[in-house]
Amino acid sequence: MKKIVSFFAVLVFAVIPLFAYDIWNGVVRLNNSEILEKETIKLNGMWEFYPGQEFQTFNREQYDMAFIKVPGSWRIEAKKNFQSDIACYRIKIVGLKPSTKYAIFSRKSPATAANFFCNGEKVASFGTYSSDEKKFKPCERPVYAFLESDSIGSIELVVQVASFFNHESGITSSILFAEEEVITRHFRSIIILISFLLGASLFLSIIHFSIYFGDRTSNANLIFGFVFIAIISNLLSFNGSILSWEFQEIPYSFITVLECICPWMLPQLFSVLAMKDKFSTNKLLLLDKIIFGIFSSFGIIFCTFPIKYTNYIIVLLIFVDFIFYIYRIYRMAFSFATKQIQFGVYCLFFVIIDTGYFFDAFFSSFSPENIILFSQIGTIVFILFDVVYLAYVQQAIFHNAQKAKIELENSNEASLKFFYSDFIRLINDEIKDVHLGDCTKRKMTVMYVQLVVISPNGEKIQARYEFETCSKFIKIICDCVDKNNGIISSCFGRGCIAVFDNSAEDAVKCAKEIMHGIRQLNNVLCKFGEPCVMFGAGIHNGEVIIGTVGEQTSLNTIMIGDGVDAVYKIVAVALKFGVPFLVSQPVIDAIDNDKYKMPIYQNSIETAENQELFLYELKEKNTSEEKEVFQNRMPALLRSAEIDNILNLL
C-alpha cells in the first residue's frame, strides 16, 4: 500500500508543473508563481490582437479586436486577412508576486520594429517604430527587457509592431518570461555559447585557410574555410543575433544579408567540392553545376534587389536548399557505398550543418526555451568532427613528413658516399649555395698517389681482382688523409688526389703514414700470394683553382692550376724511377726538413713557367747520412717534353 501511495505522490508532483499556468484569450493565469524563480515559461498561445492600431489609440471594445496565435504571422494566423503594416498585441499575466521584477526574452524581435509596454509604460524598443514607412527604421535583434508587476501581482504586456520590409509580420519567435535573475542567466548563457562557437569557428577557418595557402592543392581546406565563414555569419545574425545586440547601429539590411549567406553559400561550396571529386559521373557533375548556377543566381538577386523584395525570396531559398539537402544525403550515402571515404566524410560535414538549420526551421517552437539551438548543436558536432579530421590529417602529414625526413636523411647519407662534401666546402661553406661555374683560387698543398697493381707470379691480373686490390689500398690512403686534416679531391683510375689547406706539415706526416700502411698491407697480401701494389706519389705546394662544372642538375668538381700540373709531373718521375714519394722545393721551404732529413733527388722537373723545380725523396725512415751525402748533388733536369712522354706511357 505504501508503494502505491508513493507512486501516485511522485506522479502528482511530476504532473503539477505541466499545469502551473495556462494561456487563453490574452490572459496568462499562473497557478504557482514560484516556478518563475527557477525556470522560464513561454508566453505562447492566444493573444489579443489589434490590427492597424497603435498603443495610444487602441480600444479593447472596438470591432477590430481579435485573437491571434503567438508565435506566428498575422497574415497567416489571424482569422481575417489583415493587410495593415502595424498592429498591437496584448496579454495579461496574473497570479504574480506583487511589485516583483520580471523579465522577458526572445531570440528575435517582433516584425522589424517594435515597442514593448508594461502596465502602460514603455520598457523597450527595437528599431524605430512608426506608422509612416519613411520614418520607420527596421531592426532585428534579441528581445531582452525588464518588467515589474503591480501591487496586485499582474502585468499587462503590450507589443506594438510595424512590418514594412519583412515577409513575416508579427511576433514570430516565442517570448520567454521569468524572474529577472532567471532570464538574465538564460541570456548570458546564450551569449557565452555563441561567443564560444564564434571563436572556435573563426579559429578553424584560419587554420583551414592557412593550410590551403601552405599547400594550394588542398582545395578542400579552402572550401571548409569558407564553410566556417558561412557558419560565423549565421551565428552573428540568426536566432539571437549577437551582432545586432552588441552593435545596434548596424543596418537591418546588412543583418538580413548575413542571415542569407549561410543557406546561400553552403550549397555552392558543396557543389564546388563535388565537382572536384574524381569519381563523380558525368550526370552528377552536370547536376552539381546546375546547383552552383541556381544558388549563384540567388546571390545576384540578394546583391541587386532592395531588401524589401529579397525578404520574400528567403522562403524560396530555404525550400530549394532543403531539396538539395536531400541530394547531399544521397551523395554521402553513395560515397560511403562506393568506398570513397574522404568525399563521404566531406558530405557528412555538410549534412551535419544543414540538419541543424532545418531542425531550427521546422521545430522553431522548441528553440527559445533552450540555451542551445539545433543549428548550434550541429555546429558543435561539426567543429568536433572537423577537429578530429584535422588531427587525423595533421597526424598523417606528420608521419609522412617524418617518413620523408628519414628517407631524405638516408638519401643524403647515401649521396655523401659518392661525393666529397668537405672538398665542395672549399668553394663555399654552404653546399646549397654552390652553383654551376662557382670557383675559388687557393694556395694549397696537393698530394697525388698513383697505384700500380702487380702479381707475385707475373701472371695477368683479372680486372675484378685488380679493383678489389686498389680498393683496399685507396681506403688506407683516404684514412690517412682524413686523419691528418686533409681533404680527398677525387679518386680516379688507380689514383687518389688530396689537398691540405692548413699546412704542408700535415701532408708530409700523411705521406709517411701512407707508406707505412701500404707496406704493411703489401706484406700481408704477399704472404697469401695475392696481388699487391707499387706506387709513386708526389707532394707540391702551389696555387690551384677549385670549381664546379657540368650541368645544373648534375655538378662535378674539378681542380686545375700550376699546382696540379706540377704534382702530376712529380708522380710521373716517381713512377718512372720507382721512388715512393717525391716532395717539391716549396713544400720543403714550408716545413722543417731537419726533422724529416729528406735528401735532394737526382732529378728535377721543369714547371709551366720554364723554371727548374727541385725534388726531395721522402722515405718511411730517412737518415742524416743520406741527407749529407746528397745535399750537394746537382739534379738532372727533366724537360716538360720528357715528362709528357712518361705520362703518356703511364
Summary keywords:
650 residues, Rhopdopsin 7-helix transmembrane proteins, Alpha-Beta Plaits, 3 domains, rod-shaped
Walk me through what this model shows.
It is a single chain. The protein has 650 residues and is α+β, with helices and mostly antiparallel strands. It has 3 domains: 18-183, Sandwich (Jelly Rolls); 186-395, Up-down Bundle (Rhopdopsin 7-helix transmembrane proteins); 424-649, Alpha-Beta Plaits. The chain has 19 helices and 22 strands. Strands 1, 2, 4, 5, 6, 8, 9 and 11 form an 8-stranded mixed sheet that branches. Strands 13, 14, 15, 16, 17, 18 and 21 form a 7-stranded mixed sheet that branches. A 4-stranded antiparallel sheet has the order 3-12-7-10, covered by helices on one side. The chain is rod-shaped, with a radius of gyration of 47 Å. Residues 1-19 have low confidence and may be disordered.
CATH architecture of the largest domain: 2-Layer Sandwich
Share of β-strand residues: 15-25%
CATH class of the largest domain: Alpha Beta
CATH superfamily of the largest domain: Nucleotide cyclase, GGDEF domain
Shape: rod-shaped
- The whole-angstrom Rg is 47 Å
Gap between N and C termini, in Å?
122 Å
